[in-house]
Amino acid sequence: MSKRAIISGITGQDGSYLAELLLDKGYEVTGIIRRASAPNLWRIEHLIGKVALRPADLLDQLSLMRVIDDVRPTEFYNLAAMSFVPASWDQPMLTGEFNSQGVTRVLEAIRQVDLKVRLYQASSSEMFGKVREVPQTELTPFYPRSPYGVSKVFGHYITVNYRESYGLFACSGILFNHESPRRGLEFVTRKVTDGVARIKLGLADSLSLGNLDACRDWGFAGDYVRAMWMMLQQDQPDDYVVATGIAHSVRDLVDAAFARVGLDWQKYVRVDPAFLRPAEVDHLIGDPAKARTVLGWHANVDFKRLIEMMVDADLERVASAPPARIGNPA
Ligand code: NAP
Ligand code: F7E
Question: Which of 330, 315, 299, 303 is CA-nearest to residue 261?
Answer without folding.
Answer: 315
